[in-house]
Prior knowledge:
The chain has one domain. The chain is 70% helix and 0% strand. It contains eight helices and no strands.
Amino acid sequence: MTGTIRDDDERVPAPPRAVLPRCAISIATGVVAWFLTSDPASAHIVTGPMGGFASGFEHPLSGPDHLLAMFAVGLWGAQMGGRQVWMLPVTFPLIMCVGGVLGIAGVAMPGIELGIACSIIVLGAAILAEWKAPEWLALLIVAFFAVFHGYAHGAELPMAADPAAYAVGFVVATGMIHVVGIAVGLLFGRLYEGRVSRALGGLIVLAGLYYLVNAVA
C-alpha cells in the first residue's frame, strides 16, 4: 500500500529567535536615548496653558522620572506574574489620586523629588533582583511611592482650567504607561531566562540614581 509520505524536514522554518531580543534591545536603547536627552530640571513643568484633559495626559509623558516609575510598576508586575500583573498597575493610579488630593489641598509634604527618585531606584532594583515580593509588601511599596507621584501632579491641578479633566488625563496616561510596561515584561521579559527584564531593571536603577543626584543637588 502506497501513500504520500510527509517529509518532516520540509517544515516552514520558525522565525529567528534573535528577532525578539533585537526588539527588546531597540526598545531599551530608545528609552535610554530619550532619557539622556531629557532635562531633569523640567521634568515636572508642563508648558502652555493648563487646559484640562490634554494637559493632564501630557504631563506623565513629558516627565521621564514619572514615566520610568510607571513603566517599572507594569514591568515588575509582569515579572512577578499572577494577580500582581494587574493589581500593581491598578493600585498605583488609585493611590496616586490620594497624593493628588494632598497636592491640591496644599498639604506640606517635603522631599517630593527625593521620593520620586527613590521610587525609580527601588522599583528598578526589584526588577533587577527579580524579587518576588509578598503581595501585600509589593502593594505597599507601590502605594507608598504613588503618593509622591500623585502629589507632584496634584500640586499643579489648581492652575488648570478644568482640574477634574486634568486629573482624568494624567490617570489615563498613567494607565497606558503601565500597560506598556506589562506588555514589554510579558513579551520580552522571560527571554534569556529573564535577563532582558533584569537588564531593563538595571537601566531604570541608573536613571533613578541620576535623578537622585539632581534632587539632592
